[in-house]
Structure formats: C-alpha cells, structure tokens
Please model this.
Amino acid sequence: MQSTDEELVSSYLEEGDDHAFRQLVERHRDRIFGYLMGMVKDRAVANDIFQDTFVRVIDAMQDGSYSQQGKWLSWVMSIARNAAIDHIRKQKKWADMPHEPDEGRSFWETLEDEAPSADEELHRAEQREWLDKHIEQLSPEQREVLLLRQETDLTFREIAELQDVSINTALGRMRYALKNLREMMKKSDKTSLAGTPDA
Model:
C-alpha cells in the first residue's frame, strides 16, 4: 500500500529518510511545476523557482516549521506561491507576465495522456497556445485561482487560505475567470467568422 504524504513526512523528519522526501517531491512535482509554469510562462524560470521552493521547504521542515498535519501539499503550494510572487515582483510584471510560447511545454500538456496523430497534435498545440493567450489576459487573482484548480488537487478552501481571502472570494474569482474566458472565446470566434485575411 502506498504511503500517505504524512507517513512520508514523518519518515523524513523522524528517521532522516531522504528516500521518503524524494517520493513526496516526485508525487507532487508535476502539479507544483505546472502551477509555476502557468504563473511565470518560462520553463527555465519555473525550474529555478521550483528548486528555490524545495530549498525553502527543506529548511522549514528541518527547522520544525511544518505543523499542518494532512496538508503537506497545500503547505508546499503556499511556499511555491510566495517564491513565484517574489520573482514576479522583482520583475515588476505582475499584471503582464512574460510569455515564451516556444519555450518548453505548456502546462496544459500535462493533461494529455494519449499519443495523437501529427494533425491532432498540431490542432491541440494551437488550442493550448490560444487558451494560454486568453488566460494571460485574466486578472492576476483570477488567473492564479484557475491555475491552482487546474494544476493541483487543492480545494477552494485551501486556495482561499493560500490567497488569504474568504472561500466565497476564491469561488467568485473562479466564476469570473471562467465567465471572462467564455467572453474572450466568443469574441475570438466572431473575429474568426469575420474572415480576417492571412498575412
């Protein structure tokens, strides 16, 4: 039977079991990295922040700062979020984050399980790029709630705690994010139907 997060945490803290910690990282790596990619849109930067996150995690765990039984992932996500926001503030681009569409994989690619044909892959790549472009136009708060829901198993209550808002505010941000995306999609469809000529 697979060990729970808390059992692995206990093995690491009480027995110094590095293998247990590696299991924790491997179990949640894709979710955390996917969230960071969605935040900064740059694979190299996301990787740096990911590494910084786990340096902070190790330091905090060894210092005895972790005390949230059963909430290891949400605790780590709060550290990842702070590390990402620190980076974004340094760049002074919170409202208009850098986007490198050709740099690494889109965070939406982690949702793909099957190996599609070349035509399907091209179509999906275009859809992902189109979706990423519209998500970037959301407010930072709405974009972050959407990413947290897409990339992790965090509940709205946990997301609310991360953002230091009420659960109703977190739910409201998600509702507005989806509403705004739908409106952007409708506008985009109308533009396409208008027959904009190719360059």
Remarks:
- The radius of gyration is 19 Å.
